[in-house]
Amino acid sequence: MATAERTTPLDLLRADFPALDQEIRPGVRLTYLDNAATTLKPWPVIRAVQAFDAEYPANVHRGIHALSERATEAYELARAKVARFIGAEDPEQVIWTRGTTESINLVAQSWGRAFLKEGDEVVLSDLEHHANLVPWQMLAKERGLTLRFAEITEDGRLEPEAVERVMTDRTRVVAISAMSNVLGTVVPLEPIVAMAHERGAIVVVDGAQGVPHRAIDVSAIGADFLAFSGHKMCGPTGVGVLYGKREHLEAMPPAWGGGSMVMRVTRESSEWNDLPYKFEPGTPPIAQAIGLGAAVDYLSKLDSGAVAAHERGLMEHAHRRLSAIEGVRILGPSPEHKGGIVGMDVEGVHPHDLAQLLDREGVAIRAGQHCAMPLHQKLGLAASGRASAYLYNTTEDVDRLADAVDRARHLFKDRRPRR
Predict the structure, then answer these.
(1) Residues 172, 50 share a domain
(2) 1 in any annotated domain
(3) What digits encode the pLDDT tens for the residues 155-184?
(4) What is the pTM of this model?
(5) Distance between CA atoms of residues 190 and 337, nearest Å
(6) In which domain, by residue range, is 30 found?
């Protein structure tokens, strides 16, 4: 996340997000703390998508009329904005996808199939979302690969040494999350990337949570691939990004065939298009990409350090309030090691019941396994509650969360049968 010439005080941002200005039911206003699932959209993003749909709703690259040319210009400008936002050297290294999941699948199914062979190893961690686990499981079964897992500490941190311990001379890929979507754990990417490269392995970073909350410069980190989603960083749903080093993208075969990704087609064969279009068959997510470009513009006006400090302050406040409630177990590390996510297990209250009770008070959280079943198994939990903050949340939101959790805890405690 870039630091712009001017910054906007975070307490003035809430007016930019129309979804916050509503009551879930009469007299119950919204407290939105489900940002790890998807973030709210500010007016500049909403208007950018509306402008495309209303003023120049044309396909890109194919038309030579005014609307198509305008759409193409806005679409490719968004790609350039994203490239600058993550420190990519060239916009051609930015591939549009439908989201993080598709981006990681693209790496596994294209690069993985082309360059991994039986006996090769893929290193992952206990923190991984299914999007950064299942594609490698599928490829492992197909190619005879071995998956190895770095274990987290008791408080949910991932230390570089834990990754190093499971690396061998057969390690070819290290696929790692920048930030856990369950515990909020921020992973130290730089030393992990360095260790992997020393062993000749590539690094695939799941940045779904990391990119929205931390400044990630792919050139500085040296990651080979970075995947993330637009809707977790104030952008629209249905659009994501795969960044790749040019040498990898050039060497990878297309994963899907169709229009736009070809230069020449005969009955017998096809010649692939240049980057990035080789990986973008068919009509792309035009409106969504333009909306993501507007989201990047919005986030680039903010000081990334101020946003991180704001979220840490919210997490410190959440830890204080929630830890003071009897029967509440906070999952994951202390605030200095995490982003804006606080997972919890409330004694005697199923996470689904907790989420439903909080919803009655207008507090939106997530309940379940959060597409991270192996992590929950390691934690000894069937499910968990998760509150996740973003740049527009306040300490008042955290207080409403804690008060609602306290009332839910007492409600279920009072309902227990007495002996």
Answers:
(1) yes
(2) no
(3) 999 999 999 999 999 999 999 999 999 999
(4) 0.95
(5) 15
(6) 10-41+303-413
